[in-house]
C-alpha cells in the first residue's frame, strides 16, 4: 500500500469512528408521570431527564419515545429501540430477555387504588379475596396478583391510567400499580374521580430495583451506560433529577 492509500485509509477510519460515536440512539419508556411529562416545550420527567444526562455523559445523541410498558422489551429485542429508560424493575424473567444496567433507584413497592366510595382500610391483598381486581400488562404488579390468587377475576390493562379508570367506573374493585406513579398521581390530583389511594395498605414486597435495559448481549452499550450512571450518582445529578420531580426518597441504590 502506497503513502496516499495509507492516508485515505486513516482518514476513513477516523470518519467511521466519528460516525459511530455520533450515531443517534433510541430510548423508550412508558408514558407515565413522573417518568414522562408532556409539556408545551416538549418532554420532561425523571426518565427523560435521566436519558438526557446519560446522553451528555456518553456524548451520543439519544432520542426518547414514550411507549406502552408491555411493548418495551419486544421493542429493544427487535432493535426498534436501543435502550429502555423507565421505572422497570429487575426480575429473573426479564433478565432472560434483556441485559440490565446497575440499579439506579430503589422504587416504592406497589400501591393499592380502590373506589373512592370504598372506605375500607385495606392493609393486605388478602383483604381483596373474592373481588375483581386488575393491573397493567407486563407489570410486576400483575404478576403479584396472579401469584397471590383468590380474586374473582384479574383483568389486564394496557396502562396504569386504564386500570385506575376501571376502578373509578366500577369495572373492578381495586388495582395495584407502581408505588412511585400512584403516589405521584394522588399528590398531583391525577387519579381519576371515583378512585382513591389506600394509605393503610402495607406492601409485603421488597422495593423494586429499577434499572435501564439494553438488548441481550449488547455489552458495549451497557458498559457505557453503567459508567454514565456511576458518574451521575457521584456528581449528584441523579439525586437532583429525582428531587426535581418531588421524589426526595432517592438514595444510592443497593
UniProtKB/TrEMBL annotation:
Keyword annotations from UniProtKB, A to Z: Signal
Domain of life (superkingdom): Bacteria
SUPFAM superfamilies reported for this sequence: Periplasmic binding protein-like II
InterPro entries, per the entry: Solute-binding_3/MltF_N (IPR001638)
Residues in Solute-binding protein family 3/N-terminal domain copies: 24-249
Designated name of the protein: Histidine-binding protein
